[in-house]
Amino acid sequence: MRFMACFDTLFQTALDHMAQHHVRRVLRPVRQTGPVTVIRDGRALVNFSSNDYLGLSHHPALATRAAQWLHEDGTGAGASRLVTGTSARHMAVEARLATFKGAEAALLLASGWQANASVLAALLRLAAEQGAPPLVFADRLNHASLHQGCMAAGVRQIRFRHNDLDHLESLLIRHAGDPGLRIIVTESVFSMDGDRTDIARLSALARQYGAFTYVDEAHATGVLGPQGRGLCAGHEIDLVMGTFSKALGGFGAFVTGSRALCDWLVNACSGFVFTTAPPPAMLGAMDAALECVPHLDEDRARLARNAAHIRDVVRGCGLSPEPSTTQIVPIMLGDAARALRFAASLEAQGLLATAIRPPTVPPNGSRIRLALSAAHTDCMIGQLATAIPLALRQSAA
């Protein structure tokens, strides 16, 4: 008991230090009453922090198919995919996903974090076996799961300035004579800034300098590109990762690429090999989402218009929504305590918009990260537009 008490003291000291610097997190439960409405502490709030960009989490088609497949096949897959966890439905969803993404093959994984951390690690280990450590060119603001994949493989990253493809090219030129396979790792839409990578130029650079491309499309899939197929659609990208937990309204992740790539991952990716297969209900929601998404162009257009409007509101208040060009709109505040006050003001006005603070974002990079949804009504968008200036004044104290 004394040993455990010693560690409790360490834990509590660390928690107190976080609280002193306004970066301690606590769990605050909500009950979802719709795709963009919740109840917290007995109050109804409009949710502007959810990644449910198309409102599909409450779409009847997803709920119906999830329930149907659950009742027909049970609550769990029972084993990993390589044991007895693979069903005909897993393979059918992967085939539908590959068609949607315009790829030869697809592979389902449990979560986006797990996919990036384990798929990238497996890829880098294979590259290292070719005689020299791989050269990994990574955007410096890549998601933590991508950094974890590099660390798990013991590979040092060559980081280029955020979304600066001129800098990337200069690094490719600088290391042109170095041994090792070249791998470029980035995201198509960045989750904290809402900005986009120029995928066409990225693909061209990769072809010019003989690099493999790994692109995380978690925040673009369903929302951007033709029929919501993502920004990589129509471009030569070797591996595309994405999730079902955002615009596709469910849970789980995937990678798409060549048949050889996916077949190799079945044998080499620890996050696939050692994880129980996705359960039937999850598969049903995936299947229905892939069926629905190509037909939601009007929803995507409304989402883009609402995002543009809110960016104008933020600019009009003298704040910065840059560099966002998507449904993710940051309100840059800098100070963590101010970001918490801003969020509290919005909540008092009936809106849920979480303050994002270090270490999720860089020091002095605290912000309100607005995540808009096609399910937000004009009235909700108007309520947000009115609430932002008041929150600005109240948080300045």
UniProtKB/TrEMBL annotation:
Its cofactor is pyridoxal 5'-phosphate. It comes from the Bacteria. Residues 45-388 form the Aminotransferase class I/classII large domain. It is an enzyme of class 2 (transferase). It catalyses: 6-carboxyhexanoyl-[ACP] + L-alanine + H(+) = (8S)-8-amino-7-oxononanoate + holo-[ACP] + CO2. Keywords: Biotin biosynthesis, Pyridoxal phosphate, Transferase. Coiled coil: none annotated. The keyword Nucleus does not apply. Gene3D superfamilies: Aspartate Aminotransferase, domain 1 (3.90.1150.10), Type I PLP-dependent aspartate aminotransferase-like (Major domain) (3.40.640.10). The keyword Transferase applies. Pathway: Cofactor biosynthesis; biotin biosynthesis. Its EC number is 2.3.1.47. Pfam families: Aminotran_1_2 (PF00155). InterPro entries: Aminotrans_II_pyridoxalP_BS, Aminotransferase_I/II_large, AON_synthase_class-II, PyrdxlP-dep_Trfase, PyrdxlP-dep_Trfase_major, PyrdxlP-dep_Trfase_small. Homodimer. Belongs to the class-II pyridoxal-phosphate-dependent aminotransferase family. BioF subfamily. PANTHER family: 8-AMINO-7-OXONONANOATE SYNTHASE, CLASS II AMINOTRANSFERASE/8-AMINO-7-OXONONANOATE SYNTHASE. This is 8-amino-7-oxononanoate synthase. It comes from Komagataeibacter melomenusus.
